[in-house]
Design brief:
The protein has 165 residues and is mostly beta strands. It has one domain. 9% of the residues lie in helices and 37% in strands. The chain is built from two helices and eleven strands. Strands 6-2-10-9-7-8 form a six-stranded antiparallel sheet, with helices on one face. Strands 3-4-5 form a three-stranded antiparallel sheet. A two-stranded antiparallel ribbon has the order 1-11. A hairpin with a 5-residue loop joins strand 9 and strand 10. The longest helix has 9 residues. The protein is globular, with a radius of gyration of 16 Å.
Length: 165
């Protein structure tokens, strides 16, 4: 019997973002948000579907509190959300928005304090996640795009993690 570490990457809940698409540009601006139309099939990563928007799709660019903890590591930055995006969950594999992008992996303990971090070059995210979770003290990992710094996704240990024959 061998032990297999399992992880899960889940898109953000779309419900809090849905009302933003009904706002006009002036109302969005009051929320420090902007309506954006994707101009290419890459470069507009939706944090709900964890896929890049396609050229011509509507998104909202907004400020998002991604690490809401009472520690010095509380974090927020801009994210994109596509109109009508469905939440996706990826188990033991990385989502499309990780492909071809260097990522900063920030590993936190259950107390919300940063324990360690890694840079993952394109194609190295899965190995970096597994390496970080080898430390039992790591409760979750927040992935950020290394260049722009925006939140990419939260990575958690999968509840179905366990021994496999």
């Amino acid at each position: 019997m061998t032990y297999r570490m399992s992880y899960r990457i889940q898109g953000l809940d779309p419900a809090p973002f849905a009302p933003l698409f009904a706002l006009d540009d002036e109302a969005l601006s009051a929320w420090n948000a902007r309506r954006v139309i994707a101009t290419a099939d890459r470069g507009f990563p939706c944090r709900v579907s964890l896929e890049d928007a396609r050229a011509g799709e509507e998104l909202v660019l907004l400020h998002h509190l991604s690490h809401d903890v009472a520690t010095p590591y509380r974090s927020a930055y801009a994210i994109y959300v596509r109109r009508g995006a469905a939440r996706t969950i990826w188990r033991d594999r990385t989502p499309p928005v990780f492909e071809g992008r260097p990522l900063a992996m920030r590993a936190f303990g259950a107390d919300g304090m940063l324990r360690t971090a890694r840079l993952a070059a394109p194609g190295e995210a899965d190995a970096a996640i597994r390496d970080l979770f080898a430390d039992a003290g790591i409760a979750y990992i927040d992935a950020h795009n290394a260049a722009y710094g925006c939140f990419a996704a939260r990575i958690e240990r999968d509840a179905s993690e366990g021994a496999e024959p």
